[in-house]
Structure formats: C-alpha cells, structure tokens
Amino acid sequence: MSTPAAERGSTTVADRAVRRIAERAATEALGPGEVRVGRGSAVVQGRRARVGVTVTLPYPAVLDEAGERVRSHVAGRTAELTGLAVPSARVRVRALRVREFPQEAASTGPASTGAVEVGEVRARRPWSERRAPFAVVACLVAAVCGLLLYDVVSVHAAGRAPARWRTRSVEWLSAHGPDDAAWPGLAVAAGVFVLGVWLLVLAVTPGLRGRLPMAAPVGVRASVDRRAVAALLRDAVADVPGIGRVRVDVGRRRARVRAGLRFGARECARAAVAEAAEEAVASCGLARPLRVHVRVRPEAVWSAPPEPPAAVPASTVRGGAADEPTP
C-alpha cells in the first residue's frame, strides 16, 4: 500500500545553502579566478528563491556583458542545483581588479631605444593635448575674424562707412607688400613664420616633458610626474644617516642627486646614498630606468670620523715592561 503524497514529508532548502551555491556559481561565470565574490544573499519563499551576489570583475572588461554573464550563470546554476525556481539574480559590481600578466611580458624591450615593451604596447611618453597654445591661437583668430565680420556686415547691411582701422590697414598693406624692403613688413612676415614653425613643432612632438612613462600591463598607459619622482628620491636619500640637505633634479633619462654630508665617512655615505637612490628609482616602475648621478659634499658642520688608535709594536711593549723599575 502506497503512502499518500501529502504524508510523505517535504524537503526544505535553507537560505544559507542557496547563498553558498550562488556565490560558488558566480566564481564559475567567466573563468578560473576571474570573478571574486565578496558577499551573497538569498531568500527562499516556497519553491522560489531570490539571490544576489557582490562581485569584483577583472579589468579591462565590458562591464555590461560581464555582468550579464555572471547574472545568467548564477540564476541558471542555482536553479539547477537546488531545484528551486530562480527568476533572476541581482549582481552588484563592487570593484575592478587588473588582470595579472606574466612577468616576461613586462621585461621585454629593445636595448637600443631604451623603451620597455609591455605585452604588445611600447611604453612611451604620453602625447600632450596642447590645450593652452590651441586656446590662445583660437581666441586670437576668433577675435580678429569677429571684428572683421562685424565691420563687413555693418557696411553691407546697415550702409555704414567702413571702419578707419580697416581702410588704413588695407592702404598700408597695399603699399608695404612682401616685395617691399621696409622693416614693418619683414617683421610681420618673420613673426608669422615663427608662429607657423612653432605650431608645426607642437603638432609633431608629444610634449608633456614633465611626465615619465611607466611600465604597465597591456591596454593600460600610465605616467608619473618628474616632481613626484624627485620627491621620492629626496625622501629616500634624506633617510641616510649623516645626510643633511638634499637636492634632486630629475630629467628624462637621468637623475642628479646632490647631498650634503654632516658627519661620517664621505665614501661610505656616497655608497649609501647611491644605493638608496637606485632602490627609489626601481620602486617607481618606470619604463626607462633613470641613470642616477650622485654627488656628496661635506657641509660646514661636517666632522670627520675619529681615526682608530695606532697599534703599538709588541717589542716596544715588552721592552717598556722590562725597563720599568721593580718596586
């Protein structure tokens, strides 16, 4: 005789078990180690469950597509393993994590150019947007064109007489052309030529000479300001015992460190300063390591280390002991 279905009992899946399954499913959505789960939530109501997870996604990635893949996988996998109906899952992206690339990709680069290739991207100095020169030239051109347009419109639309500055300018230009040897025309031509050369130089050079490129993963371009590197070098050298004033000048390829010695041996202090400066430069992660030049000079308050006492010959000691009178 079979037992009625109503008396066979029931199976209840706890909220905690559903939450653990949803968290585990989120880590399987993209790939091994790609998604990190912070905290999940689950609420079971009868044969339905609502789940949510907080995740950290890898960078770079399309957040919309990655989030949709995590959401669909969590909902489907949780419903498959629990037997509950999971209409949807709530996914909250808390942070982004940069993918870890092999160290070999960050250490390759031709020695002739000094640049470091990170994966397939060659780390170079960033290109400047030239906002200040462009704004100045644009404002000057706009002002001249606006003034000329206003005078032309007032003459043809309102029937006014042309402005004196425009008539005088036209008369002066007609009498002082490029063929004339007068100095005003030559000065204006020279000024226009210099301005054109300057704009061409700005267009073909990267600029941003105050920034140094850093070695970064593929798809990421990073740079650091020279003043930040100089401050880091200054702090590292100032921590060396016996060093007083420190002056650091950071260029595109080298860093000059001038330190004042207050006490201690000069050669030992110079070696310690060079070691501290090299470690500080290495910690910056630059694409092109800087060549460090160190100069240590004693300051006015410098005191030389005391010399060790000279050793006394053993024969002198024995002779002196023998010559002493016996009491």
TrEMBL record:
Domain DUF6286, chain residue ranges per copy: 194-297
Transmembrane portions of the chain: 132-150, 181-204
Pfam family, one: DUF6286
Alphabetical UniProt keywords: Membrane, Transmembrane, Transmembrane helix
Superkingdom of the organism of origin: Bacteria
Region feature Disordered, mapped onto this chain: 303-327
Protein name as catalogued: Asp23/Gls24 family envelope stress response protein
